[in-house]
Structure formats: structure tokens, C-alpha cells
Amino acid sequence: MAVYRNDGKRFKRDFDYLIKTAKEDKSLSERYTYIAKRILLSKKIRLSKEEKFLICRSCNRLLIPGVNCRIRLKQGFLTYKCLNCGSVRKVKYDKRVRRKSNRISE
């Protein structure tokens, strides 16, 4: 890794690269996600809503739905459960948006 000043684009690019490599290489994924999270915390870079759920908050592992993460829709919440440590994160979703998408498909 190179030495940076306050260049948020470079940090974001490195984060994306580390996450992509962690998905491909299962043996080093834990280390890559740890490094990616440290980059974000050290430079206070914000992630998008989708990217926030890539890393488990408690065990710092990469969450891959169907492999080590379970996603469920339940009572207006989208729940992410890490199968490594068992932690659960809930996100509220708007039921009206879901109904509107059902009408379009009909």
C-alpha cells in the first residue's frame, strides 16, 4: 500500500479492491476485510448503504449471502444474520415500495 494524504478516492478504490480480492481468495479473506475496515476507520470514509452490510460489525468478516450470512424479510425489517458469530443487524424497509414493485410485475 502506498502512503496517502487526504485522498478519499484512493482509499475507496483500495477498499473496493480488498473486498473484491477477499471474495475471490477465501483463505485470506479475513485478513483483507480487517485491512479494508482499518483503512475506512483511519480516514473516516463513509460507505454506501449496500457496502455497510459487506462486513460484520462484531467479527469483522466478509458477509456473503448464502455462504456465511442469512438474509430474511420479517415484519418490515430486513435482517442480516452472520453465521460465524450469530450477530443480527436489522434495517427497516418500506412495505409500500415492495407492493409497488409487485404491481409492476403483474
Written overview of the protein:
There is one protein chain. The chain is an alpha+beta fold and 106 residues long. The protein has 2 domains: 1-46; 65-106, no CATH class. It is built from 4 helices and 3 strands. The protein has a 3-stranded antiparallel beta sheet, with no helix packed on it. The radius of gyration is 16 Å and the shape is globular. The termini are far apart.
Strand order of the largest sheet: 1-2-3
User: What's the total number of strands?
Assistant: 3
Q: What is the multimeric organization of the chains shown?
A: single chain
The helix count comes to 4
Broad shape = globular
> Largest sheet, described in full?
3 strands, antiparallel
Helix content: 40-55%
Helix and strand succession?
A: HHHEEEH
* Total individual domains: 2
Low-confidence stretches: none
Radius of gyration: 16 Å
Name the average pLDDT. Answer: 81
- Beta-strand content estimate: 15-25%
Q: How far do the termini sit from each other?
A: 51 Å
Sheet/helix structural class: alpha+beta
In short:
This protein is of the alpha+beta class and 106 residues long. It is built from four helices and three strands; from the N terminus they run H-H-H-E-E-E-H. Helices cover 44% and strands 16% of the residues.
Give the key terms.
106 residues, alpha+beta, three-stranded antiparallel beta sheet, globular
